[in-house]
Specification:
This protein has 171 residues and is α+β, with helices and mostly antiparallel strands. It is 30% helix and 20% strand.
C-alpha cells in the first residue's frame, strides 16, 4: 500500500487538472475516497476513458505516455501487442508506448527519456528503463491499476533530458 501511494504522489507532481481528477477517480474506484452525496438522488457517473498524451517524432512515429495509473492502464492494454512498451525499472512512473514494432535508435532513446523524465528518477542519472513488446507484459490479477509483470525485456540507461522532451511537449 505504501508503494502504491508513493507512486500516486509521484504522479501528482506533474499532473495537470484533468490528470489529477483521474487520480481522484482511481482512488474512488479503489475505495480510498468516497463521492459526496448531493441531495437524495445519486447519479451514476459516466465512465470516461482516461486521455494519455501522444507525440509524433520527425520520423512520423507516434509515442504515447500516461501520467497516472488509469492512463497507463488504458494505454498499455488498448494498443497493438507488437508496439514497444517502456517503463523505468526502479522508479514509479509513466508507461510509454512506441506505436511501431521496430523503432530506430533515436525513437528508443526518446521513449526511454520520456519514461525516465516522467518518473521518480527524473533528477537521477543513468536511469534504467525496461522496454519490450506489449505481448511480453501480463496484467497482474487483482493488482492496482498500472501494475504489470514483465516477461522478456531489454534495458537502456538514460540521463533524463528535459530539453529534448520540451521539443515535443510543453512542460
Amino acid at each position: 500500500e505504501i508503494d502504491y501511494f508513493s507512486g500516486l504522489s509521484e504522479q501528482l507532481k506533474y499532473a495537470d487538472f484533468e490528470t489529477a481528477m483521474e487520480i481522484r477517480e482511481e482512488l474512488v474506484k479503489q475505495g480510498y475516497l468516497f463521492e459526496k452525496e448531493k441531495g437524495k438522488k445519486k447519479k451514476k457517473k459516466k465512465d470516461v476513458s482516461p486521455s494519455y498524451t501522444t507525440i509524433t517524432t520527425e520520423q512520423g512515429i507516434s509515442i504515447s505516455f500516461g501520467k497516472n495509473n488509469l492512463q497507463n492502464d488504458a494505454l498499455t492494454w488498448h494498443t497493438k501487442k507488437s508496439n514497444i512498451w517502456f517503463h523505468t525499472k526502479d522508479y514509479h512512473g509513466s508507461h510509454v508506448v512506441v506505436h511501431d514494432d521496430n523503432p530506430d535508435e533515436y525513437t528508443i532513446r526518446l521513449a526511454a527519456n520520456i519514461a525516465a523524465y516522467f518518473s521518480a528518477g527524473r533528477l537521477s542519472s543513468s536511469v534504467p528503463v525496461a522496454y519490450c513488446p506489449i505481448k511480453n507484459l501480463k496484467k497482474i490479477p487483482g493488482a492496482k491499476p498500472g501494475m504489470v509483470e514483465l516477461g522478456k525485456y531489454k534495458t537502456i540507461y538514460i540521463d533524463p533530458d528535459e530539453e529534448q522532451i520540451s521539443q515535443y511537449i510543453n512542460l
